[in-house]
Design goal:
The chain has 285 residues and is of the alpha+beta class. It folds into 2 domains: 2-124, START domain (Alpha-D-Glucose-1,6-Bisphosphate, Chain A, domain 4), CATH 3.30.530.20; 129-282, Regulatory factor, effector binding domain (Multidrug-efflux Transporter 1 Regulator Bmrr, Chain A, Alpha-Beta Barrel), CATH 3.20.80. 28% of the residues lie in helices and 39% in strands. It contains 6 helices and 13 strands. The protein has an 8-stranded antiparallel β-sheet. Strands 1-5-4-3-2 form a 5-stranded antiparallel β-sheet. Strand 3 (52-59) and strand 4 form a beta hairpin. Helix 2 (25-38) packs across helix 4. The longest helix is centred in the middle third of the chain and has 21 residues, at 103-123. The protein is elongated, with a radius of gyration of 23 Å. The N and C termini lie far apart (58 Å). It comes from Arenibacter arenosicollis. Residues 190-284 form the GyrI-like small molecule binding domain. This is AraC family transcriptional regulator. It holds the Pfam family GyrI-like.
Length: 285
């Protein structure tokens, strides 16, 4: 009797699904939220922590609550538990599910399969390789444009400002001194927003162009964890999460202010899986 009471009235969900995915939790976290954002009838209720996301989905006249629970299994595999509740018909679902294949159950299975297909498709479009030795990112002088954006809009900001930055520097005979890079100055993981500097290494001189947009500074080098990312730079932040996982596993303290060094110009296009970026996560001093 106690078990029946718990099942009917106390269990906080009507149906649960378990998925095993060949990727790390950060990719899953971002994919859940991107999948939800793509569905106009989905609302992010809260992100209790990095591994716990609650959403609300509207299907016709029904409100479903989705509780996502992410559990890392190893460096390359994670488990996703999804706990679903029909807010207005919970008791009826619990009474019906053991005895019939309900519409609620069918819809839930379709929805989870849709998400899983999207996640698997995304995983195929990028690679992250963590380098198993500490690296030293050298100091340099740079021209930069400070920006704020969501993580998803990071690459868009870079693409919009790359022509401004490169054209002004070239037209004014500024000597370039390396590959463009992006320096994260603040990362709010709760709302997936960032402040960052889009930078171009240059040789310092006394006649640098001044236009009110481009700024100049010395970029201080640092010791860091490093990963190599292949794929569209829109999702190069997947490497940030891989480095955080590596740091946690190995007991390394890091600052969540990564630097991305770009080897390709997204404005030119090409096969995205051949794009390269080196991602550095600085060690805490």
């Amino acid at each position: 009797m106690t078990s029946l009471v718990w099942y009917l009235f106390l269990r906080p969900y009507d149906y649960s699904v378990s998925i095993k995915s060949k990727t790390f939790p950060g990719t899953i976290n971002q994919s859940i939220k991107l999948w939800g954002n793509a569905n106009k009838n989905t609302v992010l209720l809260k992100q209790k922590d990095f591994l716990t996301i609650d959403q609300q989905l509207l299907f016709n006249d029904s409100i479903f609550q989705y509780q996502w629970r992410i559990t890392p299994i190893n460096d390359s595999t994670s488990k996703i538990g999804v706990y679903i509740k029909d807010v207005d018909h919970s008791l009826m679902n619990k009474l019906s599910i053991p005895f019939s294949d309900t519409n609620f159950e069918k819809r839930t299975k379709r929805t989870i399969l849709e998400f899983n297909d999207m996640l698997n498709e995304h995983i195929e479009k990028f690679r992250v390789t963590v380098v198993d030795t500490l690296q030293q990112l050298p100091e340099t002088y740079c021209a930069y444009i400070p920006l704020k954006a969501s993580q998803l809009s990071k690459a868009k900001g870079m693409m919009q400002n790359y022509p401004i930055l490169s054209t002004v520097l070239v037209d004014n005979n500024v000597e370039l001194n390396g590959r463009p890079f992006l320096e994260i100055t603040n990362w709010d993981r709760e709302v997936d927003s960032i402040s960052y500097n889009f930078c171009y290494p240059i040789i310092k001189s006394d006649s640098l162009p001044q236009n009110g947009i481009i700024k100049y500074k010395k970029f201080n080098g640092f010791k860091a964890l490093k990963a190599v990312y292949n794929g569209n730079y829109i999702t190069s932040d997947r490497a940030w999460y891989a480095l955080l996982n590596y740091a946690e596993k190995n007991g390394i303290k890091v600052s969540e202010t990564p630097v991305e060094v770009f080897f390709n110009n997204p404005n030119i296009g090409g096969n995205e899986i051949e794009w390269i970026a080196e991602i550095y996560m600085p060690l805490k001093e």
